[in-house]
Each structure stands twice: as structure tokens, then as C-alpha cells.
Amino acid sequence: MVSELTPPKGAEPWESRYAVAFDDSYTPTDVNLQGRAPNDVLDQQLFQARLGHAAVVVLVRVEQVWGKGRYEGKQDQFVELQVGDVLMGSLPKDAPERFMVEVSSIDELPGELRGEIMLLFLRWDAEADPPYHHHLMPADEELVALIKAMVKHAQAEGVLDAKGDEKKSGRGGKGKRKRRKKKGKRGSGAPSEDFDESMIGAGGGPPPSSSPASSAGDDSGPAPVTAPDEPPPAEGPQPDSSTGLQELGGDSPPESTGE
Q1: Calpha distance 239→232 (Å, rounded)
Q2: For the chain, what are the domain ranges?
Q3: Which of 57, 64, 76, 94 is 20 to 30 A from 159 (CA-CA)?
Q4: pLDDT, tens digit, for every residue of 67-81?
């Protein structure tokens, strides 16, 4: 059974404008937060949209890859995921430690994905089957550190409470997200004993201190996606312009302090 996750009570309804960011697919390469090429700019915008509108952002490890026709004869592709740290939002209490998601991709999913640590961005859709939409992408050190810093900043600004839950009285009457770093109960986002977060990145180890997200201020974030000398955005579907990042602790998306 693929649908092993169910929306919690009170989950925000799905809207079609989220479909570009939560496309049930995956990004095979790291996002270049400082890139200025059109494709880099589009990737940054999509990352912002996913981070701003996700109900849950969680580190996962790919345990198994099922190509077309290899899972119960279905022509769809699937990956089995091991739950790691929940960086934002919260999974239902009865969420399994492992679950499967369908991955939409024209190309065959590479077997090399097995064992990779990835970021899963998820937004609930109670009317869909399964009742959510998602996107998977590589969990490089800089990106993970950035997400943690932004959640910490949102907590400091009062948008999130001490547990990382959304405050209903946050900016615009909205708040978001939850962050859990400690090990805990099943379904709480705590990694199983064999989940090693140090596997993130080619070299492993903790995020480098020079990354934008680990700089002194918590106002760090993705590189600006607009500038007078910047090339025009890449062609194709564009993410919803309202990323929700403004609600993560500031009046505008935090800017990168990187070089």
C-alpha cells in the first residue's frame, strides 16, 4: 500500500497553485543557492515555494527504488523512504518509520538513489489518492543548515512556538511549521537508530560554518532571485509567487550572506 500517510485533522486544504512546487517528482541535483543562470534562479524560486508552503519538511533515506513495472506490476515508479529528522511541520503520530511514495519521472529512477539522504517536502491534499503531494531533492549540508536557521529565526520572531508549531496569531493570521531535532517517538520525525544524518553531503560531517545558513545572523537564506543584471528566468511553469517565506520570521525572504 502506497498511501501510508494520512492528513492530520485541521490540515490546510490543497490549492491548485501549489502543483508546480509539489509535483510528486524529484530533483536529481543540488540547488545552487548562489547561481545566477536562469535554471538556477528557477530552482531557487521552487525551493522557496516548497519551503514556504510545505506542511512537512523531513530528512529521509532512500531504502529501495522501484522502477516501472517492478512494484506490483505497476508502471509507476516508487521509492521506499526511511524517516529521519523532521525539520519543519510534524508527521501524524501514527506515521510509519518507513513508507513508500510514488515518483513521477519520464526517466527511469537511478538505482544509485538507494542509500541517499534526501529532503522530502510534503503538503497535504485530502481529496487526492494518496492524500498528499510532495517533492524530493538532495539534502546537501548548506540546504539543511539553511532550513534549520530559518525555522530558528521564525521561532525567535514568534511565528512558531517553542515546539516549532504554527502560531495561529502569526503574521497575517498565519504561522507555520514545526521543527524537531531530538530523538523521540515513532511518527515524531525522530530517525531510527540506523539513520545517520552525518551521511548528508559527499563528505559527511556537520554543515560548514561558512554556509549562509550558519552565519551569525538568522536572516540568512537563498540567494536573491531578482537583480538588475540578472538574466531572465527560465522558461516553463513558474512557482506560485507567494512563497510563504515572509511568514518564516521577517517581512521579506531572508537574503544570503554568502559570497
Answers
A1: 15
A2: 16-191+209-221
A3: 94
A4: 876 666 676 899 999
